[in-house]
Design goal:
Number of helices: 2
Number of domains: 2
Order of helices and strands: HH
Largest sheet: none
Number of strands: 0
Oligomer: single chain
Length: about 60
């Protein structure tokens, strides 16, 4: 193989690695954004609301006895 072919292979491999790296970074950023409170629509906000409702139910059940 000539030097031009080796360079083409190296550029191809580098491009594939860069594409995978970019895709993984985008996925991680997207999923981590769901774990930060943002005022109501994130997963963390929904879980916090459910926790508070469950705590209220426990309090009502304990006080009823």
């Amino acid at each position: 193989m000539s030097i031009n072919e080796w360079i083409a292979v190296a550029v191809g491999i580098t491009s594939i690695i860069a594409g995978f790296t970019g895709a993984i970074r985008w996925l991680v950023k997207h999923y981590l954004a769901e774990l930060k409170p943002n005022g109501g629509s994130s997963l963390v906000d929904k879980v916090n609301r459910l926790e508070s409702r469950v705590d209220e139910i426990y309090t009502l059940l304990i006080n009823k006895e």
